[in-house]
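BUG: 3D viewer hangs when loading the predicted structure for this chain

Environment: internal workstation, default settings.
Expected: structure renders.
Actual: progress bar stalls at 90%.

Input used:
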Amino acid sequence: MWTLLGIAVLVVGFAVRLNPLIVIAISAAVTGIAAGLSPIHVLEAFGKAYNANRYIAVVFIVLPLIGLLERNGLQERAKALIARLKSATTGRLLLAYLLFRQVTIALGLPIGGAASMVRPLLAPMAEGAAEKQVPTLTDEERERIKAMAAATDNVGTFFGEDIFIAVSSVLLIKGFLETYHYIAQPFDISVWAIPTAVLAFFVHGTRLLLLDRRLKKLAARGDGTS
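Structure tokens produced before the viewer hung:
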């Protein structure tokens, strides 16, 4: 049971809003030590995991390109594009992206992400749609919309990826169940992930529509205060 201390570290770390990478690293280290591993073995596990997933280094190639595009007005272009669509609202835009994200990730196509999609495109477009509804948005409302854009990407990814049979999370679930002598095939896990993904879509979709309703109320009041 001492290995559950890692979960406590996660809860406390996120509650006090520490850097997520630091919190996860400390949580993993606490879990390993609580399980009886020496600090050297914990460090070896970190190194092995990093070496087995070296493809994440691609991020260091993509990020400079995104930064260059942002510097040359990518976000402003995104806002201008969404402003031309008369029927576009923040909630509808994010709802469409949620569906797109879930479907593509379920097919094994990792199109999206906080760095490559949310920050440079989705968040500015959602903010632009909100400005069209409420021209006098406060900074608090702008941050709320950006957070909802990031949450939309996370929900779509988290609940959609398990539908794809070859994703690592499905293999993790399979291995965990087999530890307790429950035999589950990856295909069965993927099939049973579909109802969860559908439910997540409706739950978060409702939140997005409520966001639209909130913006309409702000527009009716003629200001951007909460």
